[in-house]
Amino acid sequence: MVMPLNATNRGAIAIQLAEMRSLQQLLISNDQCLINLVNDDHIRRRLLKMLEDDQKNLGILETVIIQSGIQSQPKRSIQQQLEEIQTQMQDSKLSVFEKVFQHELLKHRQTMTGLTIHKAAQLVGADVEAAIAPIHTVNFENRAHQEQLKGFLEILGVRELTGQEPDQGLWARVEDAIAALTGVAGSVITRTDDEMSIRDLLLMDHTKSDILFAEILATDDPEKIQECFVQLYKDVSIHGLAEEQIVYHAASPYYRAMPDIVEQTDEAIGMLDEVRSLDVRDPDFKSKVKQVRQAVRDHINQEEKDIFPILKHNFSPEQQKQMATDFKAAKSKLQAHEQLPHLLQQTSDRNHNHQWEEGSINNAMNNVMNSAMAWKRMFQVKAVINWIEAIVFLFADGWIRTALNTESLMNPEYNQLFYGFVIVIGIGYWWVGRDISQNHDIVRLGIIGQSSVFAILAYHTLLGKLHPFYLLSGVIDLTFAILFIVFLSTYRDRNKTAQLKGNEFDREGSLRY
C-alpha cells in the first residue's frame, strides 16, 4: 500500500516558496513607501513600474506555490525578521537613501532565493521543476530591479552627500543595464500580465501529471515511486475537484457531454484509489499505473479538444483570467485543508456531490445511483421503454386482447391518442438524459403522469375490469416515478451543498461563481 509521503526535499522547497511570498509582500509595501518619499519624478515613475511588476510577481508566486502542490508557512524566525524590516522602513529615522539601500538588499535576497529554488527543483523532480517554471519571471525581473535600485542609490547618495546632481552619464549606464537584463528576461518570462488564462493554468496541471507518470514508470527506486505517486494522487484529485467547481460549472451551459467528462474524472480517481491500495513493489503496480495514465490522458485529450475551445470562444480574456484566479483559490483551499489525506481517501466516493465530510456514501449501489452517468442512462432507458410500449400497444393491442381473452376497446382512438402521448413523453425523457442539469420540469411531469397511470391501472385491475397483464406497465411507471423523485432529491441536495460551499468560499474571497 502506498504510504503517506515524507517528502523532505519537496517540503523544504515549499517553505522557501512561502518565504518568497512573504518577502514579495514586503517588497510591495516598500515600493509604496518609497513612492511616497521620493521627490524625483524620474525615480518615482520607475518605482511605480517596479510596484506594478512586484504585484504581478506576487501573483506568479501564488501560482507556483499552488502548482507545486504543497502548502507551507515561512519559518517563524524569517517572518519576525521581515516584520522588523517593515518596521524599519516605516521609521522616519532612516533616510530615503538608507531605505532604498535596504530595498535593494531585499531584492538581491529574493533573486538568490528564487535561483536556489530553481536549482533545487531540478534535483528533486522534473514535476517540481515544471511546476515552478514561472518563477523565472520573478528571478529575472528582480535582477532588472536590482540594477535600477543601484542606479537610484548612486543618484540619491550623491545628492545626500554633496547636495548636487550626479553626472548625467550615470542614468545612461543604468538604462543600458536595465535594457540588457530586460532582453534576457524577455526570453524566459512565461507571462507578462496580472493573471494567466484558465487554459494556461490547466495545461500546467496536465503537463505536471504527465511528468509524474513518467517519473513513476522510469524508476525502480521504491521511495521515489512512492514520493511521485502520492504527489500525483494529490494533484489529480485536487485538480479534478477544483475543475468541477470552477471550469465545468462555468462551461456546462455550452457543453452537453459535461456529465461524461466529469465521470471520466471520477473514474480516473477511482483507478488511482485502486493503485494506492497496492505496495509499490507489487509486480502489478506499474501496469496499473500505465492504465491510469491512459485514462487520465484520454480525459485530458477530450478536455483540451472540447472544453478549451468553449473557454476560448464563450469567455472573454478577462473572464478566463478571473476563472484562473478562482481555480487557484479552490486548489489552494483544498491543499490547505487540515484533513487532506482523509479527504483524498474519500475522493472516489464523492460522485459529483463535492462532499468532503466523513460519512460520505460508501455503499456501491448508492455510488452508482449518485453517478451522473447512471442518471443519464436511467432517463434514456425510460425513453426507450416508452417508445417500445407505445409501438407494441398501438399496433398489437387487438392481438394482445385476443390472446388474453379480454374485450376489445370500444373507442380505439383514445388508446391511440394515449400512446401517442407516451411517445412524446419518451422524447422528453431522452432530452433530460442528454443533459441531466436541465429540463427538470419534464421530470416532475413524468412523476405525476407515471404515478397517475399506475393508480388508474391498479384501480381498474382491482375492480376486475382490466387484465393484470396491463398492470405491469403501471408497475414499471411507478418504479421510474420513484427513481425520478430520488433523482430530483439528490440533485437538489447536491446543489445545496455546492451553494453552501460556494458561499463559504465567497466569504473567504476564494471563489466567485
Describe the protein in words:
With 513 residues, the protein is mainly α. It folds into 3 domains: 8-186, Up-down Bundle (Ferritin), CATH 1.20.1260.10; 198-367, no CATH class; 372-501. Helices cover 78% and strands 0% of the residues. It is built from 18 helices and no strands. It has helices at residues 8-37, 41-68, 76-90, 96-124, 126-131, 135-162, 169-186, 198-218, 222-251, 258-276, 285-314, 317-335, 340-345, 364-369, 372-404, 412-434, 440-462, 471-507. The radius of gyration is 32 Å and the shape is elongated.
List keywords for this structure.
disordered N terminus; single chain; disordered C terminus; 513 residues; Ferritin
Largest sheet, if any?
none
Oligomer: single chain
What is the structural class? mainly alpha
Tally of extended strands?
A: 0
Instruction: Tell me the series of helices and strands, N- to C-terminal.
Output: HHHHHHHHHHHHHHHHHH
**CATH topology heading of the largest domain:** Ferritin
Uncertain regions: pLDDT < 50 for 5+ in a row? 1-6, 183-192, 338-370, 495-513
Estimate the strand proportion. Answer: under 5%
Radius of gyration: 32 Å
Distance N terminus to C terminus? 38 Å
The helix content, as a percent range, equals over 70%
CATH homologous superfamily caption of the largest domain: Ferritin, core subunit, four-helix bundle
The domain tally reads 3
Mean pLDDT: 80
CATH architecture of the largest domain: Up-down Bundle
CATH C-level category of the largest domain: Mainly Alpha
